[in-house]
Design a protein that fits this description.
The protein is α/β, with parallel strands linked by helices. 31% of the residues lie in helices and 21% in strands. The chain is built from 13 helices and 20 strands. The strands form 4 sheets. The chain has a 6-stranded mixed beta sheet, covered by helices on one side. Strands 15-16-17-18-19-20 form a 6-stranded mixed beta sheet. Strands 1-2-5-3-4 form a 5-stranded mixed beta sheet, with helices on both faces. The protein is globular, with a radius of gyration of 23 Å.
Amino acid sequence: MTLVRVNELISVAGQPESADFADFAVRGFAGVINARPDGEDPGQPGNAAEKAAAAAVGLSYSFVPVKGAEITEADIIAFQAAMAAAKGPVIAHCKSGIRALTLYTLGEVLDGRMEPGDVEPFGQSLGFDLAGARRWLERRAAQTVDVKAFFHPATWSVQYVAADPVAGRCAIIDPVLDFDETSGATGTSSADAILADIESRGMAVAWILDTHPHADHFSAAHYIKGKTGAPIAIGAQVTEVQTLWKEIYNWPALATDGSQWDRLFADGDRFEIGGLEARVLFSPGHTLASVTYLIGDAAFVHDTVFTPDSGTARTDFPGGSASALWRSIQAILSLPEETRLFSGHDYQPGGRHPRWESTVAAQRRANPHISGKDEAGFVALRQARDRTLPKPKLMLHALQVNIRGGRLPEPEGNGRRYLKIPLDAL
């Protein structure tokens, strides 16, 4: 293993052995960042062994596994957070050190401490080829829509702001209203953080978009509409979901015409966010009403496909269908291979950092639920996996809010709101 000192904060290296970690501590390092996915080589120690070795000698440890051609902004953010958490100098490694240095260097550029043109000379000065980092920055500069993600750890959800910075207009996609099921407390801190970020960038909200009625968190669409006046929208088939759950909740007064939203989008509908044209792609399977929002070179797919190491969405909810999900996925994979796909959840397989962005090409190549599968194989895999999954703990809480556009139940005579939980309904 060759150790290269970048500066007083970070050194990069190839693959260390577990026995090297004691030496790292003796030499004054505070932490280790492992940027290498497990399984690249038969003999590599792997995440679990490295985590144990770091703990044994008092080093902080972070797992930020990346493949060079598939680095996303989420990876860069996680790398920066790992450096900050170490509270001292770190060793970042992959197989050769290039990916680790790439993550660090891209963070320096995005934070304005380095110019894009200085990336390759910087790498050369340390003996590394950072042409991949240059290409990453070139691709980023060519993107037609600015996307910022907000991860919600309590529900593993990802909320998005898709923006046209030139026009100063944006859409908020799948915002979360905080809810603690043990106390019944609701809160708006997650939604308020999104609004504060939008305000800090001097933008106006053009749309508030839900991809489907969520079963694992409350939608903040109605709350944000009250703060911004922006219209809220969802797929037109939400009326079928309302009808289905009206019966489950025994809710005669529930309007099932979708009137709780300002716009119900049909397949192929188009709308604008500043100078960006957006299109709606009906994507059923996870629910009856799921849609994908195509905005510029980005597709917001939520519970359709996750990042390639996480597979695809479950289809065992009322109205779900593995066959329908397969057809929806095929439509998404027919988009140009460089299209960025933004998922609505990340469950951090293997203990890695949260990730939410992939591409059509990466999904075709590396998603084990998709790559090499036909419809019959996918349906069999998906249904078998669904049988092992517990229902989301907030499902019965959330649906009665989300089939009304994120509206909480009306206050009763004592001024309090109450949720209704059907027993033995599912």
